[in-house]
């Protein structure tokens, strides 16, 4: 059994993927070729914004968004205490200080009620994370940001395809960022990412940063990065876009199967009102996680932990912490969350087998001690 079965997806779209990639091999424009522009137009339409700027990874998307907003030394950026490392890493990379806010224990997203208390005269931006495929409470976060004159960057690395109050993830905030890492709901066959915005000036700035600050060939108007997008990866995503809506529906279905079987015994994913999750993962909470994980591995069932440390616990971040505050909800989640095999092509029978094995393990005295 595979945790995520990308090969099964490929077999369903093999002809389209192969054809798209062959077209790139034929024209030879491997960086920022015509497929990149086509993809950007398609994604901007999907998200419902004016501009999509594709980049070389989700990490680069966050970094470029922060750079475009002028984040630098002495600034503070408010973000969630529970996320992948890149959320904090990009803030620190620019010399700014990440100011963490604890999470809502039900959604694992930033606790909106705690954001305002974290704002100071040094706050430059708010970066909510839409974790596990579910949007943070972006309506409430935007309202707080507006009161304080702050921009918002949605870290939507896991949530492209999700909706919040009927609108698409990455289309709600000043800038939305996503990732096309292969395991994401819309993933390519390598690294990739994108920034989304309705702001024409920010879009132009992000395009400049993406390509060494180059306004025209060998004329550089600002310091930038090499974060251009690979045309072959754009070709893959164009083929996958044809399946994306159907796969999102299938993700809902697989998640429902899991929750129907496990809901009485576990804390299963909670989807907040007015949200539809893209279900990047199916993550629940378990006691004695390591013992359960080992037993599942022995039974041939792969699992993952997203994430075993909250961000303020990461050694590389310690020197940059503003305070020695504790984030109990993030810490509790990091000790209990467990992601089960999940992709759109899981069968109900396979889901049932995974659940039966898990239920058997947790009811066994050898695990419960």
Report on this structure:
41% of the residues lie in helices and 14% in strands. The chain has 13 helices and 14 strands. It has helices at residues 6-12, 14-27, 34-47, 58-68, 86-93, 115-118, 138-148, 200-210, 231-262, 289-298, 328-336, 348-363, 365-368; strands at 51-55, 76-80, 97-101, 123-127, 153-155, 163-164, 167-168, 175-179, 193-197, 214-216, 219-220, 275-276, 282-285, 337-340. The strands form five sheets. A four-stranded mixed β-sheet has the order 1-9-8-5, with helices on both faces. A three-stranded parallel β-sheet has the order 3-2-4, covered by helices on one side. Strands 7-6-12 form a three-stranded antiparallel β-sheet, with no helix packed on it. The model is unreliable at 365-369 (pLDDT under 50). InterPro entries: DegT/StrS_aminotransferase (IPR000653), PyrdxlP-dep_Trfase (IPR015424), PyrdxlP-dep_Trfase_major (IPR015421), PyrdxlP-dep_Trfase_small (IPR015422).
Q: How many H/I helical runs?
A: 13
Radius of gyration based on Cα positions = 21 Å
Helix content class: 40-55%
Per the CATH scheme, the topology name of the largest domain is Aspartate Aminotransferase, domain 2
Active site: 184
GO molecular function, one term: pyridoxal phosphate binding
Protein name: Nucleotide-sugar aminotransferase
Pfam families: DegT_DnrJ_EryC1
